[in-house]
Write a structure and sequence with these properties.
globular; alpha/beta; 8 strands; Rossmann fold; 25% strand; 7 helices
Length: 242
C-alpha cells in the first residue's frame, strides 16, 4: 500500500477552495470515489485522517472545503460564523457540493459511475442535502449530522442509499428531529437506514470531542464503540453498493 496525498485548489464560482485528496497509488484500475464533508470546524486534521482511512480501503478520497481558502475555525464562535455563512446561502453551498463532486469524478482512476459521500455534523447535513437534491451518488453516510432539510425531495428522486448514524444521547439533534427525518424519507420513498447508537453524544466519532466539550462547555462526547460501529456500517454499505 502506498497512500499518496495532495492538496488541490479548485474554484467555486469566483472563490478559491482547497481540497485534500488521498488514494492508494498501487491500485490503478477504476475505483469508487468518496467525497468527505467536514464538521463546522473546517477541513482540519481529523478530516484528513478520515481521507487516509478511506484511501486505505481502496477508495479515492477527496475531502472538500466548504468555506473557501481552506479556512479552519479556532473556536466555536468562528466555526458557527463559517457554518452559518453556508447555511444562510445554500445556493452557493449547493454549488460548492457540486463542484467538489465534479472534482472527485475528474480524478485519475475514479470510476465516475461509482461515487459516495460521507459527512460529519455540519458535513452530515451537507451529504444528506446532496442525496435530497438527487445528485448521482450511490450512497451517502451521515455521522452525527443535522437532519433538517433545505429541499423536499419528490418521491423516487433520491438516487443514493442513505445511512444515518445518530447518537441516542445527542442533545443537539433530537429524537424528534430523527422521527421527522424518517417521515420525510418515507414520503420520498428513499432507501435509507438509521443506526441508533446507545449512549452516544453529538460528535461521537471524533476523539477531540471530549477536549472540545470541556474547553468550550458544549455537550459533545467521543465514544469508541459508536465510532467503530458506525464506520463498520459505512464500510458495509459501500461494499454492497460500490
Amino acid at each position: 500500500m502506498n497512500i499518496l496525498t495532495n492538496r488541490i485548489e479548485y474554484a467555486v464560482g469566483d472563490a478559491s477552495h482547497q481540497g485534500y485528496l488521498a488514494y492508494d497509488d498501487e491500485i490503478t484500475e477504476g475505483r469508487p470515489g468518496i467525497l468527505i464533508v467536514h464538521e463546522w470546524w473546517g477541513l482540519n486534521d481529523y478530516i484528513v485522517r478520515r481521507a487516509h482511512m478511506l484511501a486505505e480501503l481502496g477508495y479515492v478520497a477527496l475531502a472538500i472545503d466548504m468555506y473557501g481558502g481552506g479556512q479552519v475555525a479556532s473556536d466555536p464562535g468562528q466555526a458557527g460564523e463559517l457554518m452559518n455563512g453556508v447555511l444562510n446561502d445554500m445556493e452557493t453551498g449547493t454549488a460548492a457540493l457540486r463542484a467538489g463532486h465534479d472534482l472527485l469524478l475528474n480524478q485519475a482512476g475514479v470510476d465516475s459511475a461509482r461515487s459516495a459521500a460521507i459527512g460529519y455534523c455540519f458535513g452530515g447535513a451537507m451529504v444528506l442535502h446532496m442525496a435530497r437534491i438527487g445528485m448521482p451518488l450511490s450512497a451517502v453516510a451521515s455521522f452525527h449530522g443535522a437532519l433538517g432539510s433545505f429541499h423536499t425531495a419528490d418521491p423516487g428522486s433520491i438516487q443514493a442509499k442513505i445511512l444515518v448514524c445518530h447518537g441516542a444521547a445527542d442533545s443537539m439533534v433530537s429524537m424528534d428531529d430523527l422521527e421527522g427525518f424518517r417521515q420525510e424519507m418515507d414520503a420520498a420513498q428513499a432507501d435509507y437506514e438509521v443506526l441508533l447508537l446507545d449512549g452516544a453524544k453529538h460528535g461521537f466519532s471524533n476523539p477531540a470531542a471530549d477536549v472540545n466539550a470541556e474547553k468550550y462547555g458544549i455537550d459533545l462526547g467521543y465514544q469508541q464503540q459508536a465510532d467503530e460501529k458506525s464506520w463498520a456500517a459505512m464500510r458495509g454499505l459501500f461494499e454492497r453498493v460500490l
